[in-house]
Amino acid sequence: MIDWWHAILLGIVEGITEFLPISSTGHLTVAEKLLGLNVSDPGVTAFTAIIQVGAMIASIIYFWSDIVRFATAWFGGLFNADKRKESDYKMGWAIIVGFAITGSIAFALRHLVEGPLRSLWAVAIGLIAWSIVMFIADRVAERQVPTGTRAIGGGARDESTITWVDGAIIGLVQVVSLVPGVSRSGATISAGMLRGIDRVSATRMSFFLGIPTLVAAGSWEAASAAGDIGAGVGWVSTGIGTVVSGVVAYFSIAWLLKFVAHNNFTGFIIYRVLLGVAIIALLLTGTISAV
Fold first, then answer.
1. DSSP per position, 52-91
2. pTM of this prediction exceeds 0.85
3. Which of 77, 138, 146, 236 has a C-alpha 20 to 30 A away from that of 269?
4. Residue 291 forms part of a structural domain
């Protein structure tokens, strides 16, 4: 069983880290391990996925007007050729295609994710290795900043230029975040910036693509691992963690969007590498075990 105060702590960790490019799953795995939980236990794995739904609900509330706009434009474009030229219609397809690609591949690899990858070695390697990709994407974005721009938004393309091709590529890269430590937001934002999309637009796209992806993942875990949750972790603790993650995530979203408008990801990259090195040191010294 997960105690209620453990659930609150893990909910806070999830809410803070879900949208930051530092890997929420990686941080949850470390936190769960430090709390003495068996991170390879099916119930704990399900708990980790389900409380992410709280963060996704927060993003739905935060971006509700955007979601309604995209949905309205997409449905309208299905029956009106003129509306298919609108950027919101194209964004709708980008999200749908990206989610379809991520969802189908993630479903096929679900047993790998729930098993061998639930290891602190995978977390440490994911943190360090993907930091290199983030560094490259960040530098590429900064080289594309329009002359005279005050913000450090990076990229030559804004949200209105995003198409289903961008959605497909970003959705494919999002699959890499199945490796704990990589970071779903880190993967998708990096992919967007490497496509020439500015940092703010790439971050917003990460949110939009993450909503159906993580809601689907959490719902699947809730349905398929209901027995493991009920008999082990406990539904009360799972509910507490989900609510806490949602409240904290709402404020995390607002902070991140303001941050990326005027800053690059160097601070996050340094943090990721240092955390990865620290985890490896703890593993090598036997201070903590990998699973």
1. HHHHHHHHHHHTHHHHHHHHHHHHHHHH-TGGGGSHHHHH
2. yes
3. 146
4. no
Tokens 């749908």 sit on residue: 96
DSSP H or E run through 151: none
How crowded is residue 164: how many other Cβ atoms within 10 Å of its Cβ?
A: 17
Q: Give the distance, in angstroms, between the CA of residue 254 and the centroid of all CA atoms in the same chain.
A: 15
Per DSSP, what are the bridge partners of residue 197? 157
d(CA 62, CA 250) in angstroms, rounded, equals: 7
Q: What is the pLDDT of residues 40-93, one digit of tens each?
A: 788 888 888 889 889 999 999 999 999 999 999 999 999 999 999 999 999 999
CA distance 17 to 286: 26
Tokens of 176: 């890499």
Q: Which residues pair with 157 in a beta bridge?
A: 197
Residue 290 domain flag: no
C-alpha dihedral, 51 to 56 to 62 to 67, nearest 10°: -160
- Per the structure, the complete domain to which residue 254 belongs is given by 4-284
Q: Per this entry, what is the length of the chain?
A: 291
Task: Using 50 as the pLDDT threshold, list the residues of the chain that sit under it.
Answer: 147-151
**Is the CB of residue 244 less than 8 Å from the CB of residue 130?**
no
Q: How far apart are CA 235 and CA 233, in angstroms?
A: 7
Closest CA to 265 of 180, 172, 187, 169: 187
**What is the pLDDT at residue 155?**
63
For the chain, how many structural domains are there in total?
A: 1
Query: What is the CA 7 to chain-centroid distance, rounded?
Result: 20
Q: Is 47 a domain residue? A: yes
Neighbour-count burial for 191-227, b at 16+ CB within 10 Å, e otherwise: bbbbbbbbbbbbbbbbbbbbbbbbbbbbebbbeebee
